[in-house]
What does this fold into?
Amino acid sequence: MKRSGMPRPDPAAFIRANLPISRVPSIPEILLHTAGPASGLWRLAGRRQADAPPYWAYPWAGGAVLARHLLDRPEIVTGRRVLDLGAGSGLVAIAAAKAGAATVMAVDVDANAIAAISLNATINDVTISAVAADILDAPPPEAADLLVVGDLFYDPSLALQVMTFLRRCQASGIEVLIGDPERAYLPLGDLSRVATHAVADFGASTGGKAVQAGVFSLRQ
Ligand SMILES: C[S@@+](CC[C@H](N)C(=O)[O-])C[C@H]1O[C@@H](n2cnc3c(N)ncnc32)[C@H](O)[C@@H]1O
It folds into this structure.
């Protein structure tokens, strides 16, 4: 599709060419195509207000803390069907697959994220089913035992929608784990802290410095 007179590049080809592969800080087990200053992400992300910010191009603290937790405690995922909601780069999904999950599905609303997840799964030698969808208003997924959610509480209305969906999933018997560096809209009163790890953050306020991020379950 032509936009502003310029053709939008193929996401997978663009990511391969412009987002170098690097190890994730705090998670040396995982490699990701990661954006840097020379990536020119705007060429892929688009300039319309309606275009989603390219959050998928970075590993976020919420995802990093969950990935660290699953890799350190593989028994959480071993043999289970894991769904990574708001998967971004696929960091948490990849950690779940490496830790021994039976199946891993990664869901994100951004088609560029889906391209990145597929490439990142390949370079980490794991199998992930990457799906472009908004499932927040859908019934709880049938093919999931564990729902993992990394850094999805950065926007007030999204946070409310996510919590409503997570409550429905919990009521249907799906375990929920959230990773988050306590961003503004994380509903701490509804959560129990399971673990804390120091991980790098790409949030603007911390400038990439390490933060103490938490892994949380939902209170009953
Ligand atoms: C801050 S990033 C976190 C990515 C990854 N989980 C991590 O921690 O590195 C948030 C991601 O959630 C996705 N997202 C936003 N709203 C969503 C929705 N309703 N359903 C699924 N994904 C969504 C965005 O496209 C983005 O990739």
Summary: The pocket of S-adenosylmethionine is lined by residues 52, 55-56, 59-60, 62-63, 85-89, 91-92, 107-110, 113, 134, 136, 150-152, 154, 158 (CB under 6 Å). DSSP finds six helices and eleven strands in the chain. The longest strand covers residues 191-200. Residues 136 and 161 are 7 Å apart (CA to CA).
